[in-house]
Amino acid sequence: MPGRRPRLNLVNLFLWGLGGTIIALALIGSFLTIQQGRLSIEQWQSLIVAGIALGSVYALIALGYTLVYGILFMINFAHGEVFMWGAFTAFFTASGLANAGILESSPVLAFGLTLLSAMITSMVVAILLERIAYRPLRGAPRLVPLITAIGASLFLQYTARGFYGSGVRAYPNFGLFGGDIQLGPLNVPVEDAVVIVSAVTIMLALYVFINRTRTGRAMRAVSEDKDVAAMMGINVDRIIVTTFAIGGLLAGAAGILYTLLFNQVHFFMGFLPGIKAFTAAVLGGIGNVIGAALGGMTLGVLEALGPNLFLTGYGIPAPNQLKDVIAFTVLVLVLIFRPSGFLGRKEST
Amino acid sequence: MDPLLRRAIVTGLLGSAAGMHVGLVGMLASFQRRETIADYISLGSTLPIVIAVIIGWRAGGPMRHPHLRPAGTQALVLGALAGAAMGVALAAFAIVITTLDIRWILANASQSTADVLQYGQGAGLGSAILILSSTALGTAGAALHVLPGPVARALTVGALVTLITSLMEPFLGAVLRNLSLQVIERFLYARGGLTVVGALIVFLLVAGATYAWATRGAETRRRYAGMPADRQRVGKIVAYLALTGLLLLLPQIVGQRLSEVVGTVGIYVLLGLGLNIVVGFAGLLDLGYVAFYAVGAYTTAVLTSAASPAFSPELPFWGALPFVIIAAAMIGLMVGTPVLRLRGDYLAIVTLGFGEIARIIFLSAWAQPLVGGAQGILTIPSPLPFTNHPQSIYYPILFFCVIAAVAATRLASSRVGRAWNAMREDESVAEATGVNTTTFKLLAFGLGAAFGCLSGAFFAAKIGVVFPQSFDLLVSINALALIILGGMGNIAGVVVGAIVLVGLPELLREFADYRLLIYGAVLVSMMLLRPEGLLPSRIRRAELHDVVGDDEEMYAREAGEETGRPVVSS
Amino acid sequence: MQKYTRWSAILVVLMLVLAACQSDGGGDGSEAPGESADASQPAESMGTGSAADCDADEFGCIEIAEGDPIVIGTALVITGANESLGLDSQWGVEVGASLRPNIADHPVEFDFQDDGCSAEGGTAAARALVSAEGIAAVIGTSCSSAGVPAAEITSAEGILMVSPSNTAPSLTAEDTHEPFYARTAHNDEIQGAAMAQYVCEVLSLSTAATIDDGSPYADQLANVFAREFESQCGGTVTAEEAVSVGQTDFSGVLENIAADGPEILYFPIFVAEGALVTQQAKDTPGLDDTVLAGADGYFTPDWLEAAGDAAEGHILSGPDLAFAGDFYEAEFLPAYQEISGEDSTISVFHAHSYDAYNMVADAIEAVAFTEGGTTYIPRTALRDAFFSISGHEGITGTLTCDATGDCADAKISVSQVTDGAFERIWPEE
At A294, which CATH number? Predict the structure, then answer.
C-alpha cells in the first residue's frame, strides 16, 4: 500500500539500525576472538558437536510447536511442560527398573521401556491439553487461548512440583552411552552421537508420515485451510488431536534425549528449552517441518558457540553468563529481519 | 444411557480427579493446618466439600447439547449420583495410597492425605463418611437449581462470604485487634478459623441480606433512580468520602504487619494499572513487564543509594523520580519498537525474551560495575525522610495509584482510548480506517513503562535494597494474572485482582506454597468460564463473553431481568 | 481541572500529615516496662534485675506471664526452590528445643516465618515477627539477600536476630552491620580464604579458575577465593566465569576455561548446577588434570548421587563438624530424624541453627528476671549478653561473638570424595 511507507520509515530505520548494530558487534567480536586464538580447533569442534546434539533436542520440541501453529495459529505455550512431564515419567520408569535390577541385566530393554513411557506420557498430556484448555476456545479472540496456554503451562509446572517435589532428581545411568567415537577428525561423544542420530531418524519418520500417509496429507490440508478441509470430509477435530498427539510423542522423545545429555530432571526444566525451541521454530519458519529441524540445529550451534565466539573477544567478564541472551537476541533479530524464518511462507506475522 | 445420567457420573468422576490432584500436590495435607470452622472443619476438608457441591450443582443443572433440563427430584437424584460417584472414587483412592507405597514417586500419596479424605476415621468408617457426605453435598449442590432463585442465591453467597471471612482471619483478626475490638474478634475467631457461632451468624446475616436484596433490591434501585439528582449526588459524595477516609487511614486500621502487605498490594496495583494499559487497553500481550519494573528499581537504586557502585549522586527519591520516568520512556521505546509489527503470540514471546534479557543483564558480572551484580545495591533511602516509620511509604504509593487510576480512566474514554479499542479489536481494520497504530502502540508501551518503572522505584525504596533475584518472570506473571482475574481494562478489577492474588498469599502461608499452581488454574478457568474477569467493563463483557458463554442468559441480564441463578455461574 | 488540582492538593497535604504522624499500629514494640516498684526477689537461676532496668532499656522489656511460653521467631526459607536450606535450619532449631524445652522456666514456642530467599521475603518475614506479640528473639534468615533488610527491621525494634546461614560479609562489616544482628555461620571471607589456603599450602597450585552462579553467596565466595589465591600464593586466576541457575549445558564455559588449563577449578555453587558441572568437566578434554573444588553449597548426599562417578576426587570446603563427635551422632541426629521425618540431613546449616538456639537460650537466661511471677527480658541487655558470649561449646565448634556479630568458630575443613563418600582431609585432626 503506497500510503503506508512514509510512516514506517523512521521505525524501519531504527530497527534496521538496531539489528545491523547487533550483527556487526557479533561479527567484530568473532573476529577478535579468533584473533585471540584462545580456543583450539578441537575445542571449537567439540562445542559445535555439543551444539548440534542439544539443537536436535530443540528441533524435536520445535516440531511440536510448528505442527500446532500450522493448524491452529497459536503457540502452545505449555509444550515445554509436555516435554518435562515425559522426562519425569522416564525418570521414574528408569528408577523403578534400576531398583528392580532390570537396568543392569538388560539395559537396552530398560532404555526402550523408558523411551516408551516418556513418549506415551507426553502424548497423553498433550491430548489432555488440547481437549480441556484449547478446544473450547477455538473461536475466541487471539488473547484468550494465549492466556489459557500460559495458565496451563503454570498449572502443569506446579502440579509436577506438587507431585514430585521441587528438588532436582538425578537420572540413573544406563551404562550404554559412555565414551567417544572417532568420526574422521572429529571426536564425538557417544551420547551426542546417539542423540543426533535418534533425533534425525525421528524427524525423517515424521517427514515421511506427513508427506506419504493419508493422515499426514489430511494434516497438511487442515493447515492450509481448515474450512475447506472440513468440507472435503476430513474430521478436523480428529486431525487436531492427532497433531497434538504427534507433537507430544516428539516432545517425549526429546525428553529422553535431553536427560541422556544432562542426567537431571526438575519441574522447571521445560521452561527455557520450550522458549528456545519456539525460537528455533520461528528461525526455521513456523509451520514448516524441515524448517523446525534446521532452526533447532542452528540455534543449538549458535548457543554453544555464541558466548565464546562473540563475546570473549571484547574481554567482557564472565561472557558465558550471557548465554541465554544470545537465544533471545536471535529471536528478536529473526523477527525484525525475516519474520517468516528461513523456509517459512512469506506471510505477515 | 440417559445423557443426564452419564453426565452426572462423569462429573462425579471429574470431581474425584480434582480431589486426587489436590491431594497429590499436597494441598489437602498442608491445608489441614488451617481451620475453616475451628475444631470442626479444617481448610483441607473444605476442599472436597466445595468440589462435591460444585459437581452436584453441575450435574443437576440444565444441559446444552442435547437441550435438557432435569425436573426437581430428578436434579436432586443426579446431584446425589454425582456426589456418590465422587465419594466412591475418592474413597478408593484413599485406600490405594495407604496400602500401596508409591511415596517414592508421589511424595504426597501419604497417610496424612488419606486422613483428610477419610476425616481421620480410617479406611472403613472414613470411607463410609466420605461417600455419604459427598452424596449429601452433591444433592445440596443440585438443590440450588430446585430452590427458588433468591433462596439459592442467598445460600451460595452466604456460604461464599463465610468461607472468605474464615480465610481472612489473619487480616480481619489483626484489624479488629488493632481497633481494640477484641470482643468481636474473640467472638468470631478462634485458633485461626471461625467459631461455630461466628460462622452461623455471618452466614445468616449475609444470606438474609442477599435474600432481601434479591427480592426487594430491584425496588430499592428504582427508588434510588427516582430520587432527585442532587440527592443522588450527595449519596455519591458520601460514598467517595467514606472510601477516601478508609484508604487514608488504612495503615492505622490494619496495623504494622498488614501495612507491609497493603504496601506490597499497592505496588502491584500500580504494576497492574500499567500492564492494564498495554494488555487491557491496547491488546498487546506483554510478558516481559518485569523489565520495566527492574529498570525503575535499579535507576532509583543507582541514583539514590550511597552504595551505588559506579557513581553515587545520592539524589533524594523525588529527585531521582524524573530520571526514572525518562528511563521508562527510553526503555518503553526500546521494547515497543521491535515489536511493532508483531502480533499476539509472537509479541508475547519476544517481550518475554526482553524480560529475561533484562534480568540476565542486571545479574551479570558485566554490568556489575554499574548495578552491583549478584551483590545488589544496598541502603536505598526512603521517599519520606522526615518520618522513619515504615508504614509511611504507603502514602506515596497510594497517591501514585490514584494518579494512575485517574489517568487510565481518562485515557480509556479519550480519543486515545478509542484508538486502542479499535486496534485491539482488529488491527488491520484500524489501520485501514486511518489509525496510526505505530504511535498508539508506542504510546501504550511508554505509559505502561512509566507505571512499571514507578512501581519498581517504590519497590526499591520500600525494601531498601535491590537484588537481581527479585526481578524474574514471576513478577510479570503476577501482574498478568491479577489483571486477568479482575478484568482487563478495568481499574476496580485490577485492585480486586491485586488483593486476591497478591494479598492472599502474603497473608496465608498455605496459599503461598501453592501460589503459582493457583494462578495457573485461575488463568485457565477464567479464560474458559469468564474471560472478561470478575468485574468486567461493559465493552469487555460483550467482546469476550459472546464467544464463551451462555448467550440467552446474557441477553436476559442486559434486559434487567432477574434470572435468579446462583451468582457463581457466569 | 481546577477542581481536581484543589482536591489533589488537599489530599496530598493530608497524606503527608498522616505519614508524618504515624503511630505504632498493631501489637508490639512498646511493651510496658516492669510495673512493680517493690523490691521483689529475682527468681531462680536467672539474671538479677528490676523494673529500673526495663525503664532504662532503650527498647524496654519482653514480658512473659507465669506459665506462658517464650516465643522465638524464625525467618528461614521454607518454601520454594531453596526450601531444603531453610527447612534443614528450622529442624535444627526444633531439635534444640526438643533437647532443651525450657528457657528460664518457661516453655518455648516458635513462630515460623518464610524468608523466601529474597529481599522482599525477608522484609515480610521480619515485619510479621516484629509486629507479633512479644517475640523474644529471631533465628534467621537463611539467605543473605533476605538478611540485609530483615536485620535492619529487627534492629530498629531492638529484637535480637541470629542467622544460621547468612554468609555475606557486609552483614557483619564494620560500617554496615546492624546492632542487633549476629550469626553463627561463617563469613564468606573465611571459607573462601580457607580453600585458598589449602590450595596454596597443601596442593601448591599456581593457576585457578572460578565459576559462580549469580547468587550473592557463590559470587562472594568465588571473589574471596580469587583474591586470596592471588595474594597468598601469588597465583594467577585465569578466568572468573559465571553461569545461570537452571542452566544445564556448561560446555561453553568449560571449554573457555579449559583453554587456559588451570590447575584447579573452584565452583562454589549449588547441587543442581554443581553436579552437572562436575560431570561435564570430566568430559572436557582440557580439564583432565584439573582439580575440581566446591563449597558447602553442594556438600550434601544428593550431590554425590547426582554427580555419580564423576565426583570421585572432588574436594569441598565446609564447616568442620568433626568437632561434633559423639553428641552429633548419638543425640542430635536421632532427634533430627524424628522431627523431620527424613533419613538424613538435607542441608548443611542445621548445626549452626542448633547452636544459635542454645546461645540465644543462654543469653536469655543470663538477663531474664522474674518479679511477681512475670518474667522480664530487657532487650538491649539480651543483645549485650549474646554478643558477649565467649567459648560456647556448640556442635559447630567453640563460638565466641565479636563486636560486629560474627560468632562462628571459624573452623572450615576440606573434604574429598573417596569411594563415593566424603572424607575429611584437612586440617589434620
Answer: 1.10.3470
> Model-level pTM?
0.88
- Whether A335 sits inside 8 A of B547 (CB atoms) is no
B376 touches chain C (CB under 8 A): yes
- Tell me whether residue A315 is in a domain: no
Q: B392 and C219 in contact by Cβ < 8 A?
A: no
Segments making up each domain of chain B, as ranges:
1-146, 241-558
User: Is the ipTM of this structure higher than 0.90?
Assistant: no
Rounded CA gap, B458 and B392, in Å? 12
List chain A residues with CB under 8 Å of B338. 15, 18, 332, 335-336
Contact: C118, B467; criterion CB under 8 Å: yes
State the fold for domain C189-321+413-426: Rossmann fold (3.40.50)
What's the structural domain count of chain A? 1
Give the residues of chain C that fall short of pLDDT 70.
1-5, 21-49, 321-325, 429
Which residues of C touch chain A, with CB atoms under 8 Å apart? 80-81, 83-84, 214, 240-244, 246-249, 251-253, 255-256, 258-260, 271-272, 275-276, 279, 283-286, 302, 305-308
Contacts of A178 by beta carbon, 8 Å cutoff, 6+ apart? A190, A191
Is pLDDT above 50 for A349? no
Q: Tell me whether residue A327 is in a domain.
A: no
Q: Report the candidate in C59, C67, C65, C70 with the shortest Cα–Cα distance to residue C28.
A: C59
Domain extent for A164: 50-304
Residues of chain C with CATH 3.40.50.2300: 51-185+349-389, 189-321+413-426
| pLDDT at residue A315 tops 90 | no
Question: C160 has which bridge partners?
Answer: C137
How near does any CA of chain A get to the CA of B396, in Å?
32
Q: Determine if the peptide bond prior to C427 is cis (ω within 30°).
A: yes
Instruction: Give exposure, C141-174, as e/b (b: 16+ Cβ within 10 Å).
Output: bbbbbbbbbbbbbbbbbbbbbbbbbbbbbbbbee
Rounded to whole angstroms, the Cα distance separating B81 from B87 reads 10
Yes or no: domain B241-558 corresponds to CATH 1.10.287: no
Q: Report the chain C residue with the minimal C-alpha distance to residue B361.
A: C214
Residue-wise pLDDT for B395-450, tens only, equals: 889 999 989 998 888 888 888 888 888 888 888 888 888 888 888 999 999 999 99
Per CATH, the architecture of C51-185+349-389 is what?
3-Layer(aba) Sandwich (3.40)
